[in-house]
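By convention, the token line describes the chain's fold. To illustrate:
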Amino acid sequence: MRGLGVVRRHAAVFVRFAGLGGGVTLVASAALVLFSQWIPWLAANVLTTVASTVAATELHARVSFGHGRPGLAAHLKSAATIAVGWLVTSAAVGALAVLRPDAGLVLQQTVYLSATALVGIGRYLVLRLAVFAERAPRPRAGGSGVRSWTAYDAAA
């Protein structure tokens, strides 16, 4: 029965991550549309990516993963995942521009948001497993060396 509880806790973390990330992405998408009216799309993508990365890292650290305020190292690692994501989204929209130069705003946003969703899954895995990874509790000094799974499960 313990396994089902762990799955539920991990699923809850993913749902929070996806909800927050999706919300930030939708706001960034709207900002991207607005900014791209005045500056080139790639520049608008950089601007919205930087702003949304800082916001999302703060939200994911505090709310999704319950780690409190992230430090500079966590922000930099998170930014690295976003840099890869920026390359993927830019390549996707760039490929669309080559393949369908007459693509309208709806198709552009569909491609952008689809690429962003794929990037989001990869980002979750990296943040969950590396940046905000759970740490198994250390055995108590002088104790039997047995770890408490209850404490570990609670961290999930």
Remarks:
- The chain has five helices and no strands.
- The longest helix spans residues 2-35.
- Residues 143-156 have pLDDT under 50 and may be disordered.
